[in-house]
Amino acid sequence: MRRWGLSLQVAFTFIGTVVGAGFATGREVLQFFTRFGNWAGPMILVSTALFVWLGAKMMLMAASMRARSYEDLNRHLFGPKAGAWISHLMLLVLLGVNAVMLAGAGSLFSEHLNLNYQSGLLITMTACFILLRKGMSAILAINTLVVPVMIVFTAVLVIETLRGPGADRWMTMPMELSPWAAILSPFLYGAFNLSMSQAVLVPLGSRIGDPVVLRRGAWIGGIGIGGMLLAGHLALSSRMPGVEQFEIPMGGIAREIGPWIHWIFVFLIFMEIFTTLVADIYGLSLQLQERVKIPLNALVVLVLLLCFMAGQFGFGPLLTTLYPIFGMLSLGWVMLMGRDRVRPAPPPAPPEGFS
């Protein structure tokens, strides 16, 4: 039972790492899947397979190498010199992703809480800084609580969608974009999210060490991500094309169902954005600290300020511009991950912090 408990923690951490601003708000689902009409279902299956396969492989490789960070994995995949450059590039990409998530929190405040966008950015930044002073164990505990509740409320949205008009649009909506874009999109989505999840999944795999726990966690987590993608697609496609006007599409759908569902779902969206943002900023600040000898708290403030400045471009424009570019940059990483062989893992390390 203890191994199953660890597997669920791995799965929820995997899901929580991927379900950030773009996923939780519905923007990523809209950008990479729903706008491709009835092709989206098979595309989601492809992404799900990538998450299960490469998520497990990444954690197993980290365990076999006893990797301390994603930089160790990149040096293994690309060689010492190229791996160092890839890690530098990832720092910039992570900074862009954090800016998108912070902008997502600002949009949530302005669209659904009737607060100023800038106030939303500042409130989120302040809360991030306060929580980061308490360490990462609190963030992992929050993910373990928030992810199951998020799954339940996503299921509620799907049930309500299937009861209303347009429930079958996900099967009948025509694909009006390039078929080549549709074929490439699930690989871009999977590559981007898997490469970004290195910051969390590599140290997680190294710390857990148990291959059975890691494989089981990757299967549960990957299928969970695929199920949430499909649920979001069902809900969004029933409201197409009108739902495209919202910066936070899933929040707009929740508002139609009822005030209580709307407020709870908005809170959950914020918590998913917030937990992923905090984890990524912490990981980014730690990587920067290895390069520049500046106190961690000062680096956290610097990263938050850079994200604040980038967030002035707005959530929608940042996501639709940066995420496809980051996906293209991640494709090479995915190809090397798929080609590399997992070596036998050493005896599992004590799963400190995950008991």
How does this model look, in words?
This protein has 16 helices and no strands. The chain is mainly α and 355 residues long. The longest helix has 33 residues. The radius of gyration is 19 Å and the shape is globular. It starts with a helix and ends in a 16-residue tail after the last helix.
In terms of quaternary structure, what is this? single chain
Count of individual helical segments: 16
Report the order of strands and helices: HHHHHHHHHHHHHHHH
Alpha carbon gap, first and last residue: 12 Å
Low-confidence stretches: none
Structural class: mainly alpha
- pLDDT averaged residue by residue: 78
Radius of gyration, whole Å: 19 Å
Strand tally? 0
**Main pleated-sheet profile:** none
Strand content: under 5%
Overall helicity: over 70%
Instruction: Tell the overall outline.
Output: globular
Supply the key terms.
single chain; 355 residues; mainly alpha
Describe, in short, the structure shown:
This protein has 355 residues and is mainly α. It has helices spanning 2-18, 21-25, 27-32, 40-65, 70-78, 80-112, 117-132, 136-163, 169-172, 179-196, 198-208, 211-237, 249-257, 259-291, 296-310, 315-339.
Question: SSE layout and pairings?
Answer:
Elements: H1 2-18, H2 21-25, H3 27-32, H4 40-65, H5 70-78, H6 80-112, H7 117-132, H8 136-163, H9 169-172, H10 179-196, H11 198-208, H12 211-237, H13 249-257, H14 259-291, H15 296-310, H16 315-339
Helix pairs in contact: 1-8, 1-11, 1-12, 4-10, 4-11, 4-12, 5-6, 6-7, 6-14, 6-15, 6-16, 7-14, 7-15, 8-12, 8-14, 10-16, 13-14, 14-15
